[in-house]
Amino acid sequence: MKEKAFRNNSWVDAHSGKTFDVLNPSTGKVIARVPDQNTDDLLDYIKDADWAFNKWRSLTAENRSNFLKKWFRLIEENKEDLAKLITIENGKPLADARAEVSYSAGYVEWFAEEGRRVYGDIIPSGSTSKRYLVLKQPVGVTGMITPWNFPSAMITRKVAAALAVGCTTIIKPSEETPLSALALCQLAQQAGFPDGVINVLTCSKGNAPAVGGAMCNSPIISKISFTGSTYVGKILIKNSAETVKKLSLELGGNAPFIVFNGADLDLAVKGVIAGKFRCSGQTCISPNRLLVQCEIHDEFVEKLKGAVSKLKLGDGMDSACTQGPLINRASVDKVLEHIKDAVSKGAKIVLGGKSPGQKSNFMEPTILTNVNVNCLCCQDETFGPLVPIVRFIEEDDAILIANQCTSGLASYIFSSDISQIWRVSEKLQTGMVGINDAAISAVQVPFGGVKESGYGREGSKYGVDDYLNIKYLCMGELNI
């Protein structure tokens, strides 16, 4: 476990010599102290990544692919250690952490191949003496600002795409979970990546705004990729205006989960468990609002109550645990606030509703019924193990409720009526729709949202697009 930042293939301290603590959210104990870097440190990172870019971009796509494949194999070989590290600093159950490492490695493998398929075009000319060509070239130095909920996968999903097409990277991981980022760099170093291609800057919450602002203001950093809150995303957009920087943003969600009368209720319950309680509800595509049609409402609630009551809170290293802690106490307090608000507006607690201790980061899986759509838990992303259930009567009611929010990342439909599935899917204002399935993430598919959930797509064949510039060449006066 590294307790230094990573720059230019070297393990470094902050210029100031300062560090900050990394805590285990299950126990509250300090597990590491890493450098608390700032904008002065960032200048060195930018200089090194810029110098490395000219060499890295000059390699063939096959050469870059080979580096990525070596990195992929090392991640696979060290899967168990990487998973334990995620559990220690993030809190998620070890089985969930293992799945994340596999998901993380998958992006490296995918983009190792996808980088070799960046094709240009020859456009038919209207003149016999001219030829029109289109090239795609790497944008340059890229800044990656990544979250704590998937401390490994959110890095590889961005970084592997950038590296595959010839960009260099400066990663600023969340202050909550920097250790997974450093571990990935340790393996990248073993894979033989050249100096300055992959870099990780670690900093505390206090220094993060200034570092993010400096990334935006730098004329050398050509692109920033950010996964996190809509609030911070808007700040990055404003700060990047001066340099007209290329951005890709995967921001907050408020996913509706719609269960229609004709749905397979057991399948729908399984979808809630898989989608809502993964990482204790701390994922951007977690179902945030359950919309259940009146005729099947009571039966669905009983089935869901039975399934949720089997979930087990505990330290993620305990094999019996299915629900780890939330990342910090502020996250628990937000869930409790949403519950209190909903109850004050008529909601009923069916299950859970409490945190086992004033200082604990654990939160009971909670089900609410009779929820008003004006409650905080329907208007705001809870990011915790809270299931608010709203009744609806007609299909159009569900669509109206689902679309009445500024977010548009993911949505879910459970129905056995294929015509209804098509109608509703096309009307939902989200970038992704899960149909009779809540496990919608995969390396092969485009991940991203609409409205205030951001723009750009990660993963899939589209994932390299945001790291490429299109250059048009006009060749004239040809003797053909």
Explained architecture:
Belongs to the aldehyde dehydrogenase family. Pathway: Amino-acid degradation; 4-aminobutanoate degradation. Catalyzes one step in the degradation of the inhibitory neurotransmitter gamma-aminobutyric acid (GABA). One of its GO terms (cellular component) is mitochondrion. It is an enzyme of class 1 (oxidoreductase). With 480 residues, this protein is α/β, with parallel strands linked by helices. It has 2 domains: 5-251 and 453-473, Aldehyde Dehydrogenase, Chain A, domain 1, CATH 3.40.605.10; 255-441, Aldehyde Dehydrogenase, Chain A, domain 2. It is built from 14 helices and 22 strands. A 7-stranded mixed β-sheet has the order 14-15-16-13-12-18-19, with helices on both faces. A hairpin with a 7-residue loop joins strand 5 (121-123) and strand 6. Helix 3 (79-90) crosses helix 4 and helix 4 runs parallel beside helix 5. It starts with a strand and ends in a 5-residue tail after the last strand. The model has no long low-confidence stretch (mean pLDDT 97).
